[in-house]
Amino acid sequence: MTTVTSPSAVGNNFVTCQSPTSIQLQANTTGSSTHFYQWQTSTDGITWTDISGANNSTYTTPNLTTQTYFRTKAAQDIANLSNPFCSTFSDVFTISFSTIPNNSVSDGDKVICSDEPIPALSVTADSTTGINWYDAASGGVLLQSNSTSYTPITGGTYYAEAYDLTSNCTSSTRTPVTLTIVPLPSASISGTASICTGNSTVVTFNGTPNSIITYNIDGGSNQNITLDSSGVASLTTPILTSNTTYNLVSVTSPILNTCINTINSSFLITINPALTASISGPTSVCSNTNTILTFTGTANATITYNINGGSNQTILLNSSGIANLTTANLSATTNYNLVNIISSGANGCTQSLSEIFTISIIPLPTVSITSDSPTCTGTSATITFTGTPDSTVTFNYDSNPNETISLNNLGTANIVTPILTSDSTYTLISIQDSNSPSCSQSQTGSTTVIVNDAPIINTPTPYEVCDDNNDGKSCLFVLTTKNNEISTDPTVVITYHETPTDAQTGANPVSTTTYCSIDNSGFQTLFVRAYFTGTPACFSTTTLQLIVNPRPFANPTITDYALCDYTNPGDGEEVFTLNTKTAEIINGQVGLTVTYYETETDAQNQVNPLPNSYTNTTIGAPQTIWINIRNVTTGCNSVSSFNIVVNPLPVAVTPLPIFECSIGTSTTQADFDLTVNENVTTAGATGVTVTYYLSLSDAQTPVNAITSPTTFLGNDGQTIYIRVEYTATGCYSTTTQLLRVTEGPTANVPQPLNYCDPNNDGFGIFDLDSTITAITGGQAGVTVTFHETETDAEIGANAKTSPYANIDINQQTIYVRVFYTTTGCSNFVELQLIVNPTPEATIPDDLHLCDYTGAVGYEPFDLTLVIPQVLGTINPATHVVTFYNDATNAQQGINNITATSGYINGMINQETIYVRVETIATGCFDIVDFDIIVDPLPLITTPNYPQYSLCDKDQTKIGYEIFDLNSKVVDILLGQTGMSVTFYPSLTDAQNNTNAITNLNYENTAIYVQTLGIRITNTTTNCYVISTMDIRVEPLPSPIPPIEPYTVCDDNQDGVSCAFDLTTLVADLVQSANYTITFHETQDNANDGVDAINTTINYCNIDPFVQLLYVRAVDNLTGCWSTLPIELNVNPSPSAPVNVPNIEVCDTDTNTQNAITNVNLAQQTAIVLAQQPLPATSYVVTYHTNPTDAGTGNNEIVNTSSYSASNGQTIWVRVENIATGCYNVGSFQVLINIPLIVATPTPINECDDDANPNDQFTNFDLTVRTIAPADHTLNYYPSLGQAQSNTNEITTITNYTNTAPAVQTLGVKITTPAGCVSYTTLNVRVLPIPEPLDPSAATPEMVLPAECENGTNSGQQILDLTLNEAYIKNGETTLELHYFPTLADLENNTNELLTPNAALVGDTTLTGDPIDLVQYVYIAVSSPNYTDYTGRDCFEIIKQGYIINPLPTVNTITYRLCETAPIDQTEVFDLTTQTSDLLAGNATTPISTYSLSYYTDASLSAVSQITTPSAFTNTSDPQIIYVVATNNSTGCQSDVAQMTLAVEEAAFATGPQIVSTCDDYDNPYDGVYQLDLTDLSDEILAGQNPAIFLVSYYTSQVDAIAGTNALSVAEAQLYTTDADVDTIWVKVENSSNTIVPVCYAITTIEIDIERYPNPIIDTDNGVNTICVNYENDQVIRPLTLESGISNPSDYTFEWFEGTSTTVIGTDPNYIVNTAEASGATRSYTVKVTSISALGCSTTSEVFEVIQSGPAVVAAGTTGYTVTNAFSDNQIITVTVEGYGTYQYSIDDGPRQDSNIFENVSFGEHTIYVWDTEGGIAYSCEVLEINNVQIIDYPHYFTPNGDGIHDTWNIVGLSNQPTAKIYIFDRYGKLLKQISSTGDGWDGSYNGQPLPSTDYWFSVQYLEQNVSKEFKAHFSLKR
Hints:
Shape: extended
């Protein structure tokens, strides 16, 4: 029997709501036999169909959607399945589908206001359907069942699910119904509460986004304003002049217009009045002094000003509207510019200001003193004072009494000394100017007039030198060498001159170090002038003769002197006979000697000559021997050299014996190839010949060489002699070759190979070949193989290659076979392979130090501290540890750190150190690393912080005030966090960390000023720094009253004057104190500090003749003030002298150059008195040298009829009313003319290049030297004497020929415009020019070889212009040749050809392509020893010819033909028809003819040449023909040109195409993007047929042009870009072209991918906690969140907290510095947006900030409790509270999570509570609970007075003062009751000591608030 079941059904029916569906069916047949099955299906249960392939006991149906029937046929044999008699059918299994109900229909969403009742939601469904309500579209919570309506409790979307009431099948989807509860809208109003009158402001409305706010202004009609989507709207008020109120009325929801919220709120705008401000103070001060300025204006306002337009500064007016400012010391005119004024308060008014207050600076007077010292005995000198005009100078001379002299208005004064016979010194004392106020200062400085005689000198011997080039001139004259012959007195100055006049005048001294003679005769006279230092006017003269002797020269070409190294082969030494070279060196000259030297210096100095038989000292290279060839008469000599050469002998290495197997007929003979070792014998040398001999004598001779060395029959042990000879030198060496007849080679046992095993597995790689040389001993002709077994080595089987990996762990033997390839003989040795272990080092911890010592960021570290950790279990005795600061050095084991115990980091702050652990025995090593870290010190201001000052307000305690130190902490920290600041009474206390100030409201302990110490400590690293700060108490001001009234003179006699400059009183009032002074007309105004008089202008008195003013002084530092009265008086003045004429005279005294002469000043008196209103007798007239003296009446000029005045001096005239003393002042000038004195002009040097060169006469333009100003007249004369006598004036001054050879001194007369005359001299010098040979004048002309131009149409070629230099110089080796392309360039010294041996020359402007045309370069042949007045060396002009012929040009052309039938892509081309196009542009002068050659191959081979160019059939389409043109005249050949034979059609590409997008592909932060390039093909083709015009894409332009490496279609459609920017080159090709390459066009796709920003919030140390004080919720340590954006300027930032959309920060970083009252963890995100046009934006992952804090002791507790008192297991329970998660430790014990400590020992303990919030070991600061004790008792005490255990008490009850302790004797008698808080019992009873014994006690105490009692006993010991 067979049944059908399913895991999905019960029974044989399966009913489902799901369509389609599929289930598994199972056939179950009774019996134990195996059955076979055939499954069948039916749609009606009647007609059945076999299911193909369904023959297993299980069957899975297909997906079904309608009712279907299944059964199976079963049989025990598969063949019987078709036999109805041997098979059975199972029961039928039915699969049915229930009806799916239709969805319900919503009755509509509901919208209500939040203050309305909630309505029911409903749907409509048919009667066969039930409705269930859910809170989600699928799944979710069932809210209500079987109901078409549902009343929610809050707004949201709810879902109605329909189900069939019969089958319970549910609808496929649920019907959503939404209830929207609109909240009551809110609104508020804000803005600027206070504005200045006449301004408008912005009123801002905030509230529910998009809501409508109703408001009114001052109760007027209602108005509406709509908020935007962010809930904000604003309006600008009209201009307001009175207070205005904006009232809120209501706000209407934008969602539901019936949702209205009534609001009763208003916003008042208060209008502030206008402001005023001004500035006053002194208008002038002396330089480098300060003054006080007064700012006046609206009380308590802030005035902004600047100084000279600099940065703005502010000053605060006091309650009286006044503020004083003490200026800096001023040294230049200073403008104080008022900018604006801002009133006090949060919304202060601002008013712009424009007042400028100028302080003029009176410079301090100065004076200097000079003299025309030195002078000669019997003359006087002029003393000149130069300084501040119109000042009075005090001086003395030679310690005489002080005298005074007045400087004129030009600031000068002169005095003439008496006749002097000895030195005289004039000394400055002081100077005072004539300004008001007057400035003065002491002066230092003096001048000493030195009086000297002329020196006595000698005439020196002639100065002889040797001529360097035998031209009769020399630059070798060092004239100073003759000074001692002239005078040995070191104070004598000696100069040399070319003319006697120059020697007399001292003009034009010549160079004394390198003088070049100018007389080419070899003889010249110089003129000597000598004077004592400082007295050039006192001099003596003599002459010096210069002689130039000719110099001998050696043969210019001396051959090498060579020998072979035979004497002692190999040492490189031989003996040379030097004089064998003498005849060659002298080269026919007579009267000469030749000497030989080792060095050029010895040869030049003629010291250390060599012996004639000389052994070379330079080994292995030629040695230079220097020679001196000397004229025995004059001593003139020259130096040259030649080489001595020891030619080395060739290497003749004795080769190893040649082993050969013996021949068959003899055991001692064999056939040898003697050349087998030839390369060994010669050591591989080239240029040698090797021959073989039977004897040594034959080899040395050489004779009888072995003729057949490759087939030589030799005997065992026979010696063959080998001769190795250099072919070039003939030098030879010999050696021997031993012949051996042997059976096989020998082999050496090699050293073992060692390998360091990096993974210590015992296996490694070995270089077996490295042992071959050791095994064979370098023997040639052998083969070495390596084998794993001895048998393999013996038979030569299974040879192993190198490198080789061992197969035996740790050590293996390799068998080596040595095989002689010549004889076939072998030998064997063993090679040991050893694998050594590598030590395994441990990575150590990093080392830290505070940055206390040395440079910032550097500290000395003891690196050895890490060695134990690095070694671990490694034996230090067998290993060595070294340190390195470079990984490469550590690998190589070089440059290790030696100072390991005091190593200073090499990189600032942090450096990685590499540790190498090496096994001593094997050298195997391991490397680990660690960091050394210098922790930075806190930032600090050193040596002090700014002073903290207070006014001395408390006058009851002078000099003391209370300072708020806490107010300075923020400034001290400089923005640092994690730091603590501690104040100390002194620096010493700060340094010692003693007496810290705990009350930060601190009163100074030292009167007025006290220096506090400050210590800043990093709470994490405990690194600290120390500084100081002064606290200062300022005293009150005390101005000094004037001693007499302020009196001025009145110009109009009305008793009123505006001449009162009150600022002049300020200096005396303040006496240098830093006060601001203001003047007032009443005492009350002065007291109130109001209505100050404007002192920027003079004050006009209002009471005639006499008036009182009141002065108010304010201390600018403290603001304290005081007042005092001053008196003003007015007197009338005389009229001021005006239009007084100047006095003009000439300087007629003995010194015509000092512009000083006598004048009559009294002639002006009558003019002055005629201008006065009263009779002349009412006045007195005086004359003065400066306005100050004129103003004061001091220092009047006494001798007015003969006053010594200076040119331009102003004379001040004073007219004074005799009765009142009032005066007035005028002035006039004294004008004095002086002649011009000029310095001697520089000589005019002219090269002797006129028509008669080198005759020492030439023409000069005398006007090239500027001697005097243009308005002066110059006259020239042949000599100074003729100028002074005005005879023989030179009339041809621009073309004057010297009359004396070589050098001449002219006289010059100078006349000023005023007619004054002076004289000077001018030297003219004639310089010799070179005399070269000119190749252009040679016969025939020496033209350089013709060349073709270096490029088509360049007209140029690189030539060696120096080929004829030797000819040009004509033996003058010192001449210099300068090459120029044109004569104009040479004459102008421009465009010199600086590399003449490879100069690019040729005229590129030549037209007509001339051929064989000689062009020229111009050569300036110059002598560097003679330079003309323009600075150019004297030269001779020659020219060098050259020829540059043009290259023919062949044009690249395309020769196109339209293809004709047949269409076979070939045509017949007549190439000759293109000749004119190919040669177009070729035109030479004279006309050239050309030959054209055509080739089919670019190689231009003969095979490829086209022989029938007029009928050429192309072989390809297109085809390139290569064309070359040859000029038949010059032979110049063109570049190869191409002529293309083709037909083509064009293509084009439109672009560039631009792709710009944010990085939305894959990784949005890598700038890599994927796009389909083919999307742009239509734009690129722009209408071209894509079937013909093919588009391809390339990643480089080169590939696009070449058509290589194109992207495939798949690659183009999925192209992944380079990061950020990329360029794709697009090529469009015309596929219809028949040429290759086809016509194409290229454009680009420019791709710009902007990366999304990748903000990753982090902190600088990875901490995510803030520390908050649990008791007051103050943040102890804020947390700075960093966005992780490295380039923040490219982005904007928006920080959010939690899910809030309110932006809390817009900076790259955000500081969390507020506490969460609940202590909850907060989350933060940052949105980062690019500022580019794309605006790519990313929001970071959430970063959680955990709120923690240090533990605190709960109020009213000690922070712990003790239980199990007096037991062995006492328990301490820590009772603290805080935001953090805490661990606990006691004393130095480990941390633990539990707050309970068991088995606590007796004694004092310290408990530490550690914050570990956030998984950090030290999240916030540790709490330390000190003096923790268990409750116990000491078991004995010793009251003997030694201070140890002298009393007894219970320990641990000091916090229980109510505890009761009783002490009894052993009999129970009460002896003492003691307090738990006291010292305890001292062992006495009624004052008497008790004996040593046991005593009992009882104690009553509290434990866990439970009263307990304990009893025990203890011992008293004495």
